[in-house]
Amino acid sequence: MTDVATQTFDYASQALALAQNIDGPDWLADLRKDGQQVFEGHAWPTRKTEHWKHTSLNALTKQDYSKLAGTGALSLDDSEAQLLYQIADLEALQLVFVNGHFSEALSSDIALDTVEVVRFSQANDTQQAVIKQNLGKITVNDEHLFSALNAGQLSDGVFIRFLKNKKTDQVIQVVHLTTSGQASFSVNARLLVVAEAGSQGTVLESFVSDSGSQSALVNSLTECRIEDNAKLFHYRLQLEQEDIVHIGGMHVQLNAGSQLESFHVGLGGKVKRVDVVVNHEGSGAHCDLKGVYLPQNSQHIDYHTCIEHKVPHCTTDEVFRGIMADQAKAVFNGRIHIHPDAQKTLAQLNNRNLLLSNKAEIYTKPELEIYADDVRCAHGATIAQLDDKAMSYMLSRGISRQEAEVMMSFGFINELLNDLAHHPIQEKLRPILAELFGKDDSLTRHIL
């Protein structure tokens, strides 16, 4: 008998078979069928595929991800589970999914007159019409293999609609919690956000897990349509245990005068890959996209971003920072594409990286592709180690080398945390990220 640990699996065939056996709402059947067809006809990424050349998908062949998780009891009680994602002093209403299954016990009762929040499977006829009008229309499945797979395996999802000319103060938090102790399984997560004209709201996506070794593959896809003069604050926090395989996407359509402020945090894993695509479709739109990634041990993380400026008078400010420790590997590919009609564009992209080990790796590739002549654009990337002069200064002040390394590393990303619009989210993230650099509380005493 072949040992399971030495087997290899045909992931593409498994994923397609799982998709064809998905039981979901009939009104989503056409979307599932289209996704399956695109996935089946799509070439599998290899090291010769430009956008995957530094990220291997071999991890998908090491375990059998052909099943969904069971709906058994949590391996931790409700209060322990809530500690993983709840944020003190943040006015948040939660929809919680455990191993891909909706948990009514952990979720809030959301009844507001400024926003509609509903699962696809519970949507009424009017909501179904809005969902069908937008779902799958912002992402281009032909260009994103796992977006097509997400559509092909779609059984449920979350629809959030911020209503016209209304401001929603409460944060809508969508939580995906995975737990240890189960056989390998797949999670298909889908979120659709529509911010109607003149509205303002905040969406927080939290991907968390307990501390036990995980056997999950998470395929998550978020689509956002931000209508004229609407503003969306968006946070995507990937804080899962390091054995998780996570492949995600966020695709946004910005209309005239709309604004997006999106912040991403990514801890490393076996494989973690996130594609962020923002389309400027209306004049005067603004995109503020920031993020930090912090792989360590032998973890891997990959961020691919693409900002499409299609119309005049739009602006983009994109900043990502990464800290790589031990034998970790990170990939950052940021592209800003200025179309011929996108005159008067103002766009800048900055990627800074800090290597804490001689064995850590970063592959960074900032790109500007400009076809308009009246624009102001800039891009840049840096790779460095801790500054020797700054280290000497801190040592001369009686600070230990270990504590100085923690303080300098944390300071590298703290500037971005300080800019977050929601202060409680800063306070939630600081101890989580600081602990990555200093396991001993004495090493983080001056930064927390």
UniProtKB/TrEMBL annotation:
Pfam families: SUFBD_core (PF01458), SufBD_N (PF19295). It comes from the Bacteria. Residues 26-174 form the SUF system FeS cluster assembly SufBD N-terminal domain. Residues 183-412 form the SUF system FeS cluster assembly SufBD core domain. SUPFAM superfamilies: Stabilizer of iron transporter SufD. NCBIfam families: sufD (TIGR01981). Belongs to the iron-sulfur cluster assembly SufBD family. PANTHER family: PROTEIN ABCI7, CHLOROPLASTIC (PTHR43575:SF1). This is Fe-S cluster assembly protein SufD. It comes from Litoribacillus peritrichatus. The gene is sufD.
